[in-house]
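Hello,

Following up on my earlier ticket. Below are the two sequence lines again, exactly as submitted.
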Amino acid sequence: MATTERAAEQGEPSAEVAGAGTDSRPREGPAPATGVEEKLAELEDRWRRAVADLDNVRKRQATELRREVEAERAKVAAAWLPVLDNLELALAHAEADPSAIVQGVRAIREQAVRLLAGLGYPRDDETGVRFDPNRHEVVAAVEDPATEPNTVTHVVRPGYGTDRHRLRPAAVAVSKSQG
Amino acid sequence: MATTERAAEQGEPSAEVAGAGTDSRPREGPAPATGVEEKLAELEDRWRRAVADLDNVRKRQATELRREVEAERAKVAAAWLPVLDNLELALAHAEADPSAIVQGVRAIREQAVRLLAGLGYPRDDETGVRFDPNRHEVVAAVEDPATEPNTVTHVVRPGYGTDRHRLRPAAVAVSKSQG
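Thanks for your patience. The regenerated structure is below:
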């Protein structure tokens, strides 16, 4: 069935190939054969083997894909466990020393930012740069005579990622041209 | 080459198949053919098409795998951004009202626990259950005459996940049998 779909997708006239699994093999056991018949049998054998390989490769592909995606989910989720553990430690310490929690939470925030950078999603909270629609989402336009128009004056919510892999753009305020 | 490796892996005698790409086609242009020759040409064509399909499927597999794994990484990482945003909000509020941060961090801890459960990794911090080497890692053995031996008396560090997908076991204290 997969073979038929793929053939249709490519517009190839290989409908007969799809039925291969149900054909009975034309030769049974060794028989005295002419050169042409031998060649015919050999070619048919090669073809059947290639079709069977194709089927196996497709099945393995689906299994491998599921396994790799699950492994990636576990890897990324597990990377966050220390952040959660530290939140709980900070809360436990807060009962004994309430003033320590702010410092603890600041450290956890930094830990989370480093973690995201390590996964390939560096923080983007730069101001003073030119507005770039790929990395910025404008949430406010401000009048600022001291600033060149279209400059990021303030980051409301930082972005994460790169041009190739962006989790979200930075939400920013941008200077508008003076009317 | 990929075909040769795979054939070797399965112990199939398909070394000749691997060389297919370098063979010149035995028929060139339309020629008056006997029934056997037509059949031969058709079979050869089917076989070559199946081998080409096999090659395409393998190439697409690598690309698709990379794409899906990257998408999963982005999905899981992005799910944690609200946790980080809330940490930053809690810190911002802490400056105005230091007492509010403990409540805020508690809520963020709950948010992180729910997030992990949503990804398929529920929290495991149950006490009073029988020790299970699959979900528990013993870090202490305690004498507790009131408790059945081999019972989890205290969770030192919660575990996350299920039998099928476990991020880490729970680190626990277990009651030992009375000597």
